[in-house]
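Example for tutorial group B:
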């Protein structure tokens, strides 16, 4: 048995290999200068010639990791030739399996077809990256995937990615042995595929106005798609295109409003959410349009699977549409939900007649899918129930639940340990039903992810998903996995990957102690990384800035979790402010709803994260807060920050009014404040409201007037909006006397 300190680089590969048989000796990497493929390893119709594969991907990446030139003119040669790496065919290996033999004087890679070679080359690349100036240990890797579908959804609708970026995503997928790029090409906020004969899809549908001015958008031409598909094929990756229907199609309706129930007009949507205008199921023109689009899609994408979405389609318009109602009556359907399954079935049969299988989100299970569309694949996203229902009904299923697979979520919500724990096979399925689980996928929705931030969302969670789907390990210890992730740094450099954070494992909390006049900051562990540090007490390092805190520049405490001397995950930050209303008695008018009013005077500021527990929220009513300052104070400044997160239905107050009183009964106005921030911005914004009363008073009242229900353009139009208020910061004349700055707060780290 090897000692623990005698780790082989093979032990650290991500995803883990199935089997490694060590042998004596090493292969010096400086000898890796040429790649040859046996003529019979050229798999012909099964993919592009192997030399193309090796030259297009492996060689440049190796050049970067080894800092030397690997001959890109890969020769097709029988026999040994001069190649240090020889690709050879083994027809007995299952698809995607490979065998990599590392001998002192050569490397041999066997596979039955293109994808197997690509997986073996991914292993080789990672091994080489991990040993930049050394040698590979001799032995044999025998490897293959646990699941046949290992996917990533890339949402190009919300934010457009240049083709170069999509190609980079393919490289990243190949490096971690993924085999499906699920390319989400159409959305409310943008149609991304040029289609002959439908010019307005890209003239109109590919562009949206931006609040900050200008347009966002772009689209892929047939040539762009061919480049992506060709590259994917080299890498053994299937590109599954998604053309979304019947919902999430407002960009298409902006181009062709005659495909809607109401006739429009529509603009390409600028807000995120779910929108009521969807394709009219009663008009034949809708199906003529979709068939024209899909016919082009089938020409461009060789994938056996075509995704048609099917999720989140509100039925309001269908309920009010005479054509849709006539369709329901003509076909003996019960309601609009049956109309949706009729719609999906019709498109599914059209695809099946052309040899393709429909994939849809789990909403397509509503209605009788099983009897009518046997080859359909159900992608389960609302938990695992969709996968269970699909498998029991005899459908293949791909599993990508929000709980484990939504890479648009912040790593504080979905951390690496959670992804690593993902198993796509729901508990309780019989063996035959388990076989229906093709695999799993990560979904990267891009509402908040412009193309230059993809890496930060994908990494290091993508390698964790690779581990779950390729290796399906029995043991999933987060600490050991995080250490293996550190070994990926050279590979990240070779592929220009700029990873984000693995987790946000620390939470900071602060309590004001009036006796000592200081805040005590405490930390706790959160998320699935908790067990990692449950043993010996972890080392938490604090940094504090600035030396002096003001309402504008609060005291920021920053803490980093250190495990084995290494920073683990992102730092936590808490911002503290000391002021005259701190910890004073506060009351809030009863209508303000839930929430602890003491949040308004606890000295802790809210962050851009609306659910950080530091914001005081009122649902669709004004905030009316009263504070007893304890004694008459010569008031100078009242300063309250409010949060706007339009997508979450949180809007700034229309105005803020400060009132003063000596007895808490009779109030006199002391100043007002408004703002000029548009409500229709995508970003979360924190806006300060300040009033300078210049009067003496014991009691202070802050009235923040709600902006009312969500505005007409909002997906939640007419529903209650929320108001989120931060600390009510109060300074008096004495604060100004000290060099124009409030007194510094002190903190005690505990
Ligand atoms: C989905 O996230 N709406 C599939
Ligand atoms: Zn209609």
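The residue assignment follows.
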């Amino acid at each position: 048995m090897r000692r623990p300190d005698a780790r082989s680089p093979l032990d650290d590969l991500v995803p883990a290999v199935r089997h490694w048989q060590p042998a004596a000796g090493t292969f010096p990497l400086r000898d890796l200068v040429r790649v040859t493929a046996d003529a019979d390893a050229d798999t012909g119709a099964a993919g592009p010639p192997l030399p193309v594969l090796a030259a297009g991907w492996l060689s440049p990446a190796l050049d970067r990791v080894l800092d030397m030139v690997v001959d890109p003119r890969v020769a097709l040669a029988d026999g040994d030739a001069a190649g240090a790496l020889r690709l050879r065919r083994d027809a007995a290996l299952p698809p995607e399996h490979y065998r990599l033999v590392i001998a002192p004087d050569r490397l041999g890679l066997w596979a039955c077809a293109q994808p197997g070679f690509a997986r073996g080359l991914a292993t080789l690349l990672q091994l080489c990256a991990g040993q930049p100036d050394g040698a590979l240990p001799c032995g044999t890797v025998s490897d293959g995937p646990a699941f046949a579908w290992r996917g990533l959804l890339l949402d190009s609708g919300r934010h457009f990615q240049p083709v170069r970026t999509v190609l980079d995503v393919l490289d990243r997928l190949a490096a971690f042995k993924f085999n499906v790029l699920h390319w989400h090409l159409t959305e409310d906020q943008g149609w991304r595929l040029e289609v002959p004969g439908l010019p307005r899809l890209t003239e109109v549908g590919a562009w949206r106005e931006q609040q900050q001015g200008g347009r966002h958008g772009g689209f892929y031409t047939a040539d762009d798609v061919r480049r992506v598909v060709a590259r994917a094929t080299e890498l053994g990756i299937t590109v599954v295109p998604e053309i979304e229907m019947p919902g999430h199609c407002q960009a298409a309706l902006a181009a062709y409003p005659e495909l809607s129930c109401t006739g429009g007009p529509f603009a390409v949507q600028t807000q995120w959410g779910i929108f009521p205008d969807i394709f009219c199921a009663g008009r034949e023109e809708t199906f003529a349009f979709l068939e024209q689009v899909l016919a082009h899609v089938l020409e461009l994408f060789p994938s056996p699977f075509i995704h048609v979405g099917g999720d989140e389609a509100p039925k309001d318009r269908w309920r009010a549409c005479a054509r849709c109602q006539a369709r329901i009556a003509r076909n003996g359907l019960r309601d609009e939900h049956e109309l949706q399954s009729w719609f999906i079935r019709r498109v599914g049969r059209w695809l099946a007649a052309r040899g393709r299988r429909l994939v849809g989100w789990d909403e397509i299970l509503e209605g009788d899918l099983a009897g009518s569309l046997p080859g359909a694949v159900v992608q389960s996203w609302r938990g695992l129930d969709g996968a269970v229902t699909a498998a029991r009904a005899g459908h293949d299923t791909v599993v990508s639940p929000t709980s484990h697979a939504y890479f648009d979520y912040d790593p504080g919500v979905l951390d690496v340990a959670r992804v690593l724990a993902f198993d796509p096979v729901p508990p309780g399925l019989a063996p035959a039903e388990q076989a229906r689980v093709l695999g799993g996928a990560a979904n990267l929705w891009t509402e908040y992810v412009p193309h230059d931030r993809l890496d930060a969302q994908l990494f290091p969670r993508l390698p964790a998903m690779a581990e779950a789907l390729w290796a399906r390990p029995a043991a999933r210890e987060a600490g050991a996995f995080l250490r293996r992730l550190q070994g990926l740094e050279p590979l990240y450099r070779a592929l220009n990957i700029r990873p984000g954070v693995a987790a946000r494992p620390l939470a900071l909390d602060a309590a004001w102690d009036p006796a000592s006049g200081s805040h005590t900051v405490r930390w706790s562990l959160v998320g699935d990384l908790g067990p990692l540090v449950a043993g010996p007490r972890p080392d938490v390092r604090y940094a504090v800035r600035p030396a002096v805190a003001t309402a504008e520049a609060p005291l920021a405490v920053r803490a980093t979790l250190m495990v084995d001397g290494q920073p683990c995950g992102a730092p936590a930050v808490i911002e503290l402010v000391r002021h005259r209303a701190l910890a004073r008695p506060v009351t809030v008018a009863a209508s303000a709803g839930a929430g602890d009013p003491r949040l308004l005077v606890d000295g802790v500021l809210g962050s851009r994260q609306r659910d950080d527990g530091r914001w005081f929220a009122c649902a669709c009513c004004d905030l009316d807060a009263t504070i007893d300052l304890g004694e008459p104070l010569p008031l100078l400044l009242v300063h309250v920050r409010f949060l706007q997160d339009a997508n979450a239905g949180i809007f700034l107050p229309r105005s803020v009014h400060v009132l003063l009183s000596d007895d808490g009964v009779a109030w006199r106005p002391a100043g007002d404040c408004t703002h000029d921030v548009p409500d229709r911005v995508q970003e979360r914004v924190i806006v300060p409201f300040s009033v300078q009363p210049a009067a003496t008073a014991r009691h202070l009242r802050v009235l923040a007037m709600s902006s009312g229900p969500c505005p007409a353009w909002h997906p939640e139009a007419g529903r209650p909006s929320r108001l989120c208020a931060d600390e009510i910061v109060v300074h008096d004349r004495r604060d100004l006397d000290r060099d124009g700055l409030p007194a510094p707060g002190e903190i005690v780290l505990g």
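The mean pLDDT is 88. Compare this with the pattern of hydrophobic and polar residues in the output above.
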